[in-house]
Write a structure and sequence with these properties.
The chain is of the alpha+beta class and about 325 residues long. The chain is built from 9 helices and 13 strands. The chain is elongated and about 75 Å long.
Length: about 325
């Protein structure tokens, strides 16, 4: 009787733990300590669960008195893996085709470059090949951003450069933003605060221009025992999506799970929608490049208000050797309606 009670207790505890990892949103814990990290690596969690199920099954064939309990635990792990795999498939494991840009399309490239680890020539090549209109570069210094702009200018693509640094001499405390001059004049928005530790940039079009406000985002990572700065950064990013015409891109250190409750629907910050989710690419990991894309975490995003339609999105997995631990993401948007 005692053995059965203990076995039931162990099985229930495992089910509760895995349910929390699979869907912390059910209890509003998606941005809570530990749970925020646990839900970040869904693809890796599937592989770990299946691996443990195989181990428990093998051990059960050796330890016969525990065979039934270990078999039940293995079935629970398999059910978890199937459920989480279903979430990944629904969100999209890759629909990388991006249509050719039309006249009024905007193409956004975002790449956390791990300080200045990615050469300017590589950034410029990726931006040029994909005909980027907006380039957000978390952890890229002003000097490196100007180098990129000069290389693009030599190709006939001219950009304005905006940069911010929260600590001189530490490239990772920088963020840069390049805006193609074809969008018109832009100016930096002041007096709206900033993200913690790593900066973000907000620019708006000059008076009379029908162009989007652009936000280059870099939030803190949720590594603190209680990640209050990270939650504040996500709240700051959410508040920036207060207009009717906003493009937002960068390293959010958050998946669409963490966005839950911050917007009007799944994968939204206020009214800004996630491009990867809209195009069935939201399960493709952008960090770290040392893991296969489907086992990494998708924390780099391009978002936009409903006046923009995402015509394509792609995680650029062919740049894993460029020097960064993040993969660049590319989104093409078209005015809706």
């Amino acid at each position: 009787m005692l053995r059965r009670f203990v076995a039931t207790l162990v099985a229930v505890a495992l089910i509760a733990l895995l349910a929390l990892v699979a869907w912390p949103e059910a209890l509003g814990l998606q941005r809570a300590p530990v749970a925020a990290l646990a839900v970040s690596f869904r693809g890796a969690a599937v592989l770990v669960a299946l691996g443990l199920a195989v181990v428990l099954t093998a051990v059960g064939h050796v330890l016969l008195p525990l065979r039934r309990l270990l078999g039940v635990l293995a079935l629970v792990l398999v059910a978890f893996a199937v459920g989480v795999s279903g979430v990944l498939v629904v969100r999209g494991v890759g629909a990388p085709d991006i249509p050719v840009a039309q006249q009024n399309d905007v193409t956004v490239l975002s790449w956390n470059t791990l300080g200045d680890s990615v050469p300017a020539q590589v950034i410029a090549r990726v931006a040029h090949e994909n005909r980027a209109t907006v380039v957000t570069l978390p952890e890229t210094t002003a000097g490196r951003a100007r180098q990129v702009a000069r290389l693009l200018a030599a190709e006939g693509q001219h950009f304005r450069v905006f940069s911010s640094s929260q600590q001189a001499g530490i490239p990772s405390r920088s963020t840069s933003l390049l805006v193609r001059t074809s969008l018109g004049g832009y100016r930096r928005v002041a007096g709206i605060g900033d993200t913690h530790g790593v900066p973000s940039i907000v620019v708006e079009p000059a008076e009379g221009q029908n162009a989007p406000r652009i936000v280059a985002v870099h939030t803190m990572a949720p590594y603190q025992p209680d990640p209050v700065d990270w939650r504040a950064d996500l709240a700051w990013a959410t508040a920036r999506c207060s207009g009717r015409n906003v493009l937002m891109a960068g390293d959010f250190n958050a998946t669409v799970d963490h966005f839950s409750g911050l917007g009007t629907g799944t994968g939204t910050l206020r009214t800004c929608r996630d491009g990867a989710l809209a195009t069935r690419n939201a399960a493709v990991g952008t960090w770290p490049t040392s893991l296969p894309a489907l086992t990494g975490t998708p924390i780099d995003h391009v978002l936009a208000t409903p006046n923009w339609a995402f015509t394509g999105f792609r995680v650029l997995t062919d740049e894993d050797s460029a020097g960064s631990d993040h993969r660049p993401v590319l989104a093409r948007l078209r005015p809706a309606g």
